[in-house]
Amino acid sequence: MVSYAFALILLLTLVAYFAARRQASVVGRSVGASMHSRPTYHGFNAAIWACAPPLIIVLVWVLFQDAVINRMILGLFDADRIAAMSSAERSLLISEIRQLAAGRQFGTPGEDLLAAAQTLNGWTWLAHVSMVVIVGVIGALGLVLGVRAIAPRYRARHSVELSLNIFMVFCSFVAVFTTIGIIASLVFESIQFFMRVPASEFFFGTRWEPQIPIRADQVAGSGAFGAIPVFVGTFVIATIAMVFAVPIGLMSAVYLTEYADVRVRSVVKPLLEILAGVPTVVYGFFAVLIVAPLIRDFGTGLGLSVAPRSALAAGGVMAIMLIPFISSLSDDALAAVPRALREGSYAMGATKGETIRKVLLPAALPGIMGGILLALSRAIGETMIVVMAAGLIASMNINPLDSVTTVTVQIVTLLIGDTAFDNPKTLSAFALGLMLFIITLFLNVIALSIVRKYREKY
Amino acid sequence: MNMLTEASIEQKLSPMKNEPRIKMRGDKVTVHYGEKQALFGVDLQIPEHQVTALIGPSGCGKSTFLRCLNRMNDTIDGCRVGGKVTLDQEDVYDPKIDVVELRARVGMVFQKPNPFPKSIYENIAYGPRIHGLTKSKAEMDEVVEKSLRKAAIWDEVKDRLSESGTGLSGGQQQRLCIARAIAVSPEVILMDEPCSALDPIATAKVEELIDELRQNYTIVIVTHSMQQAARVSQRTAMFHIGYLVEEGPTDKMFTNPDDKRTQDYITGRFG
């Protein structure tokens, strides 16, 4: 039914556009050359009039329809009985009725439920039909108003401009609201978690053993939710990755912009950027099957004991993944530094290296920092490579040759398989996610303020 | 050479007593940008402690010639320079010449003021620092002050040396760039239309400055303004589509040029 509504809106929009354009050219011809806006603008304007209000109505309708109908269904039952139910029981009842209405019947439901399901179907149908009708009426009204508004001095150009502005504001707010929604979901689940596990244990505990006893008398069943070891693991791997990725990425960017000749650049730059397109799973098995054994053999050769899954392997491979982020953004930032600054420096008798170190890099700092930050966020949030290559046991150590686990790996393992949203094991994933989010946000803020302080604005 | 006394400067400046020494010399200089030839065998002498103006219509090769003098053309891909350019009889295109040292001796000021996005102090200190000209902070302070004074901008910026050079006005920025060039004590200063981005008042200040700088430096200036060439230069060279048309004392060039094209250009009939 909703698709009928959309089809209707599309139809009205097209009709409005062509009718208004036609009408505008007729009016234009009759008054000579003094039309304020060209016929196309009148067409767009009428089209917007015909489609924007019904679209908004459909969106709101779809958002609230189910909630309203649910409430009405509950009204069918005995008020005292409903009042006595908890909210979970109420939603269970509703979903049972909805299942019945959709024709999925389990066991023998009560007569009242079957009746309710039938009523529900009737209401849903009514709601859809009335939605289509209302949309049609409003759209047609908009169409008529839009076409009738056409007059020589009517400012359709500005009106279209305004509608576009509003649309752009809406688009940018979609991202903002999504972010808020993500934070909210993390926060609510985290609150649930902290109601079960004390915050002091989570923030300061040094043991991470997120298991939950199934039976009360189970041996070693009590879990420990100290997040420090997990964050240490993330920190170790991200540090290793950045230690390799930043110099390599930055140096390759400097080489490509300042030294490489055009032919080398045109080959090497796309090749570097291919690295960004390799799926992280592929990096993951590259790390496990090739890099980790290599590091292990090498370490054994030196007389070191290396775990089969080491932080070094995961971090090193992650660094390869990050190189294109840093090099590509730094490359753009360096290339954007005006030629005049380079020439000014060369004319002072500076060598190429001096010019790069003292003039180009400081001037390109904001862009370079942007690249590094993006890479750091990726390093902290990267999951697949570490799931495959780093290991699962949370241990408090910073030895890069040992196996470590990271926040993202733990979140994955916590949420795989049976999840129950009433025990701390599952909920701890959200607390970890929230912490991770706050940390990356914090890093971003710090880095941006550093950039603002030290940037050299050309 | 830098230790000239006032008297010897007078002597050098007075063409009556003896001809000024030739500081730089271009000998059959040709320049190709890729396939395109931009200069065709230019012979030009730059006398010491004088201002030599290069004039001519756009695209005539005057900037190209200027950039040959400190090998700034090296930074352009596909640019080839032929012939010979000498500084104090030394061939500047000799492989033995260190281009970095050459540019310290032959400084340059560009058409658009291009201060580094650093503080005013750091802009001036940049050159002395990379060439290791000073040993202490105090010495550097002195160099910075002296350069800014010589560029007639000290009084305007002395209280805000730590502010960014890009925050100055266009005219101040250009004088800052001149101060920056002076800071490494060059022998020759090349100026590529230094006033074209400036308003008349800032232009007047820079022109005044050029006239003062002539005492200590040899100056070559590219300009599109005939009045400017007449005001600041002692010698003028006229370029046209890659050829040197004629050159001579500015007075003569502006009153009684040998070549018809020079006369037409100066009087505004073409260009």
TrEMBL record, chain A:
Domain ABC transmembrane type-1, residue spans: 231-447
Secretion signal, residue range per the UniProt entry: none
Gene3D superfamilies in the record: MetI-like (1.10.3720.10)
InterPro entries, per database record: MetI-like, MetI-like_sf, Phosphate_PstC, PstC_N
Membrane topology: Multi-pass membrane protein
Pfam families the record matches: BPD_transp_1, DUF3708
Tagged with keyword Disulfide bond: no
A GO biological-process term: phosphate ion transport
GO molecular function: phosphate transmembrane transporter activity
Compartment list: Cell inner membrane; Cell membrane
UniProt keyword terms in alphabetical order: Cell inner membrane, Cell membrane, Membrane, Phosphate transport, Transmembrane, Transmembrane helix, Transport
Transmembrane regions: 40-64, 125-146, 166-188, 224-254, 274-294, 306-326, 368-394, 427-451
Listed GO CC annotations: plasma membrane
Family according to the record: Belongs to the binding-protein-dependent transport system permease family. CysTW subfamily.
Described function: Part of the binding-protein-dependent transport system for phosphate; probably responsible for the translocation of the substrate across the membrane.
Protein name: Phosphate transport system permease protein
Automatic annotation (TrEMBL), chain B:
PROSITE patterns: ABC_TRANSPORTER_1, ABC_TRANSPORTER_2
BP terms from Gene Ontology: phosphate ion transmembrane transport
InterPro entries: AAA+_ATPase, ABC_transporter-like_ATP-bd, ABC_transporter-like_CS, P-loop_NTPase, PstB-like
UniProt-recorded Gene Ontology molecular function terms: ATP binding; ATP hydrolysis activity; phosphate transmembrane transporter activity
CC annotations in GO: membrane
Keyword Chloroplast set for record: no
Keyword Repeat annotated: no
Coiled coil spans: none
Domain ABC transporter: 24-266
UniProt-annotated stretches for the region Disordered: 1-20
Keyword line: ATP-binding, Nucleotide-binding, Phosphate transport, Transport
Family: Belongs to the ABC transporter superfamily.
Name of protein: Phosphate ABC transporter ATP-binding protein
Lineage of origin: Bacteria, Pseudomonadati, Pseudomonadota, Alphaproteobacteria, Hyphomicrobiales
